[in-house]
Amino acid sequence: MDTSSNIEIIENSYQVPDYTRNSSSQRSISSFQSTQSKTSIREVNFSSELESKPVRHGSTGGADSEGFSASYKEINDDDARLIYINDPEKTNEKFEFAGNSIRTGKYSFLTFLPKNLFEQFHRVAYIYFLVIAILNQLPQLAVFGRGASILPLAFVLLVTAIKDAYEDYRRHRSDKIENNRLAWVLVNEQFQQKKWKDICVGEVIKVFGNETLPCDMVLLSTSDSTGVAYVQTTNLDGESNLKTRYAKQETQMKSPVEGKISGLIKCEKPNRNIYGFQANMDVDGKRISLGPSNIILRGCELKNTDWTLGVAVYAGRETKAMLNNSGAPSKRSRLETRMNREIFFLSIFLVTLCVVVCICHGIWLRRHEDELDLMQFYRKRDYSGPEVENYEYYGWGLEIFFIFLMSVIVFQIMIPISLYISMELVRVGQAYFMIRDNRMFDESSNSRFQCRALNINEDLGQIKYVFSDKTGTLTENKMEFKCASIGGLDFSSGTGNEQVEYSVEVDGMILRPKMKVKVDTELLDLSKSKHSDEGKNVHDFFVALAACNTIVPLTVETDDTSVKLIEYQGESPDEQALVYSAAAYGFMLIERSSGHIVIDIQGERQRFNVLGLHEFDSDRKRMSVILGCPDNKTVKVFVKGADTTMFSIINKSLNLDMVKATESHLHSYSSKGLRTLVIGMRELSTSEFEKWQSSYESASTALMGRAALLRKVANKIENHVTLLGASGIEDKLQQGVPEAIESLRSAGIKVWVLTGDKQETAISIGYSSKLLTSTMTQIVINNNSKNSCRKSLEDGLVMCKKLKIESGATGGGHGDGVSRLALIIDGTSLVYVLDTELEEQLFELASKCSVVLCCRVAPLQKAGIVALIKNRTEDMTLAIGDGANDVSMIQMADVGIGISGQEGRQAVMASDFAMGQFRFLVPLLLVHGHWNYQRMSYMILYNFYRNAVFVLVLFWYVLFTCFTLTTAITDWSSVLYSVIYTSVPTIIVGVLDKDLSRTTLLKYPQLYGSGQRQESYNGKLFWVTIIDTLWQSLAAFFVPLLAYWGSSVDGSSIGDLWTIAVVIMVNVHLAMDVMTWYWITHAAIWGSIIATFICVMVIDALSFLPGYWAFFHIANTELFWLCLLGITVGALVPRLVVKYLVQCYRPSDIQIQREAEKFGNLRVAEIEMNPIIDSPRTT
Amino acid sequence: MNSNTPSSSAGGPGSADATAPRRNSKRPKYSRFTQQELPACKPILTPKWVISTFLLVSFIFIPIGIVSLFASRDVVEIVHGYETECIPSGSRNDKVGFIQSDQDKTCIRTLTVPKDMSQPIYVYYQLDNFYQNHRRYVRSRSDQQLRSPENARETGSCSPEDTVGDTAIVPCGLIAWSLFNDTYHFTSNNGGQIPINKRGISWQSDRERKFGRNVYPSNFQNGTLIGGARLNESIPLSEQEDLIVWMRTAALPTFRKLYGKIEVNLRQGDVINVTLQNNYNTYSFNGRKKLVLSTTSWLGGKNDFVGIAYLTVGGLCFFLAIVFVLIYLIKPRQLGDPSYLSWNRNPGGH
């Protein structure tokens, strides 16, 4: 998110004709405007205040996109909040502003129960649970005992509630610490310490260096005489560089302690835009307007400033920090969506069972209608009272209805409610392993993998498309100055390979820039010669580099007391690189305040007055600074910006050859993958300067439309500039990117790169990252009209077909490498394609290409491209990016990954997962994604089976009880079945089971295909599972039934047999499918069986239950154990046979690799034992 | 996820400068568990393993099946249905009317012992089509009341047989009310009595801890409708063994209940005369009544199912083992052979 100039210049210029390339095809102004009007709908509105930053927060939609239209708006009194400086009483008269105490805790003691329950019951599953529990409370329907029916729900609610309570307790605790921190507040003209929670809006607060700001404050004055304060916003948006904030000169002069400070601030209502702020302040009858650079926000830290005074404008929950404190977006995993279809089948199955039971019962009632009165086991008539009436008989219609409801209660676990809870636990476990994975820890940024969304773990195993940003994602976003073209001369030979360390001595101290830069010796010599024409050019060029930026130099002490390092802090890495390189060539920026800068030029300190600064905005894509030169006579404007916008303001009449030469240099730089900037300069005449100054002043104090006015002023001054030269900055590829892309590609994942860079840059990065290879056929689409776009797309499709035929003709057997196509399309063309009928064609073409590169795309276009795939295919998409311009794409894709890199944390905040390096994508998808998917899909199928088998055993018994829903299995066992008897092993297996080792998965990325092809969870597997379930339930039920038929066995005893038989069967079934046995797995599976025995014994030892001591009697007979053995073997033999035959004769890739792992290659196993191997090696 | 509060002082200046000493590295601690590298066993279904498993199963199951089948065959069982025979031929058109009337219901049947039967010989009555597991029946009992006299009024679950007037019935509920009341007396052909021992036919646990020693029947079968046997009000429930047996409700609609034990051996060809009181009304729901005399084996009563099932499963496993051996010999697949991998079979086809 760093917006400075350069990134934005490069990444957001899609609607502007690419000057360097299309110089011949000048577009008329009208067509340009029409383009703009067309795209304006899709374009992100950048807030174009002084600090222009694109802002897109999670879900606020339009509210946060504060376009420049907003700056025209005078703040209405209705929409404003009025703050009387240093008069909190008056400010808070109406009690409408929040105090500064924060409460991130959701609940209090009183509200915990209702609120927490309310939130928990948002889940449909719980409501189903509740309805059934309530039904069971009706006397006519009481199937289970009251306790038994509520227990599972209560258990789940309790566990969740305890978890929530614990989390909330921690939040309360941190709130308490936070609220009780101390700050210096002006009370009665004296600064006193006050707790944070007692701070009110309107109070004047003094904050010292390195302290955290207690609330959002408008700066009044700072220790710096010019009113500058630096803040670090790490806690807010993760950016670690310093940001400059200014106090207004009008307030800077006042001392709050002696002379009373007073005034009225009128500012907008609290909102969550951390980069926007609008207000005016009335001080001493003057109205001053305030912008985002005048406010410092809660959570930031004051740096490099001794103290600062501010007036609280937003406090507590109304601060921008708190308003932005929303959780991660919630997505639903694909597997879960699929699962819902099967759940639907299961509910049909459930209803069928219930209908069968109630129809049979109805028939039985009709056939025995005459006998019901006297039948010993029915006794319809109740003779006990004086009046003879029916005993619990409501007519056969109602009886059937009750039977239906009762059967729903009895068969309720057919819908595996526990599955949802197990899935959540399993995901927590999986997230634990992903976070703890050493191989996804980024050393350079010291960041672990982060799981921000907890419910899409398994989607990582099914990705088919990866959409990647380039800058900061594929590349490091650590800029290095590489080449310069100065005055038409190219200095990119790179002869000087040594790193030159430039240093100056000031007051006996040696100052040295912190970073060393490689320099070109030729250029170094030139920069020292002052008098030649070229020397002058070079001089101006480097002055421009050193001056035309927003970098703040900071001096850092070193161990050696005589040496100080200069660190350049700024918001854009490009600017940092430029300033460091200028320093290396002897143009060292030493000091910057709001009024002047000091540059040490070849050992000579020169002071430039900064007369004005036109900051970067995404429209102009350039910035300029107006400097008063040290001779105090000349005033120069230095401009720096993207080539597209710079060439249109360059005075070409002066030196056409030089312009041409620079253009060709630029072209060659960008084809090397460098980021280019063009630098220009103009000397201002006195009249011109005065004219500018007056309009600048009136514009910067304007109340309405200030940004637009400033832009107008800037446009006027940035004109007819002399071209000084151009710079080429290298953005290095991240470590392991080519290998990672290769792995992903062989895993069957299509990698698309979406970048804001120029086409040449994008293509060269494509080559260096092995995305593009020389064998590929490139289809390039860059058009300026819809018709030409259509034509290019059609041509592309034709070419596609031709290549296919060709490769078919050449045998096609190994056509994998030969006929690969790469599509390169730019943002301008996308304007005509996306959201039109051409989209379909683009999709068709793109899906045939193995590589797609989109360059010059705007943030929303990125999302549009993701949507292109997402809406047309079932395939899973993943977007990965690091900057604010990737946020929309990250949110659009099924899985969004944020790189926590150089740019801010916007992408991370919007992402589902966050990590430090692009290459971690390989272990994430190929290893963890694969495991997660395999584990989760098996767990879902197993849970279906586990519950259905139990329900069916209950159902078969119902057929032998006059269809009256008696259960031989005790209530408690039915309830504990999915809570204790069988739950732990599934969760353990779901978290720990591993089909293949990490090494194998990385070695054979093709194995990832099993997830893409949905091999582990699909309709066929579901139905096979259901058939298996039917057989197993028949075996489990009928073996005891037939073995005990006509014997004197009682219900409780045979019920115990059924319970234990089903539990053993289900656990052995699981054991058969476990692929990796850890001691934990053993403990869970065999432990569950033992736990079941213990529970059954305990239940049967309760003498108030009818089944008292039944287990001990039946377990004393040999028949019981024979039945158990017979059931387990008989039920599982078919499964084993089918499994063996399939594994043996239609082996899946996974199966073969498992065998290879075990028998084939012993070396593999050795490597796996070795924890040191780090970067994935693919062959 | 909730710790993202910007104000919480976590994080600190995470500046990315490479020179700063990294004191608090967040690198996850290495452990075999967190890296998912715990030692583990990874079983694979190899032909050898599967075939030997099936052989093992068949070698275990077939002998068990044979032994069980022999055990079941050794059991001698006399089953005699009498629900029709014990109705005077004149009343056979209105069996319900007969059974509800006050006529003498004594009936004499003769049984011939087909094989030697060694004591103890268990005497059961078998009821068919009597749903002792019917929901409303099963629940119509009060376990509290059975245990101690204080709980005599705990009849909430017993309706419609909970109270007569205002006094509670002990034992209450449909189960107790419908207590079976046919009686059997055995005499041998030579006129000697064959005694039936009716002690110890119920579970010891029930007698000692479920049915109270000081709970006496009261108010039992005093209502308008008599369901079955009456109880001697001077004998505590813990000694009313017929009731205790009856109250262990049967799991299935066809069931036997122990009536008593004959503790003498019977010889093949012995003729036993049974004098029975055909009191119990099974006619209203077409139920059948049978008298059963049976010896037992280690496996219980006469039931071939277990033996047959074990033989079938064992045989099937043996057969499968043979089939697998053949398949393995005819068309073996080398384990872990990479030529079977999908991307090796059809290149580019993934």
TrEMBL record, chain A:
Compartments, as annotated in UniProt: Membrane
One family name in Pfam for this protein: PhoLip_ATPase_N
Top EC category: translocase
Cofactor(s), by name: Mg(2+)
Reaction catalyzed: ATP + H2O + phospholipidSide 1 = ADP + phosphate + phospholipidSide 2
EC number of this enzyme: 7.6.2.1
UniProt: Mg(2+) binding residues: 469, 471, 882, 886
Domain annotation P-type ATPase N-terminal: ranges: 83-149
Protein's membrane topology: Multi-pass membrane protein
Composition bias, Low complexity: 23-39
NCBIfam families found in the cross-reference section: ATPase-Plipid (TIGR01652), ATPase_P-type (TIGR01494)
Protein name: Phospholipid-transporting ATPase
Protein species of origin: Penstemon smallii
From TrEMBL, chain B:
Domain of life: Eukaryota
Keyword Membrane listed: yes
Main location: membrane
Gene Ontology CC: membrane
Bilayer topology: Multi-pass membrane protein
Polar residues bias spans: 143-160
InterPro entries listed in its UniProt record: CDC50/LEM3_fam
Transmembrane regions: 49-71, 308-330
Compartments reported by the entry: Membrane
Name of the protein: ALA-interacting subunit
Lineage of origin: Eukaryota, Viridiplantae, Streptophyta, Embryophyta, Tracheophyta
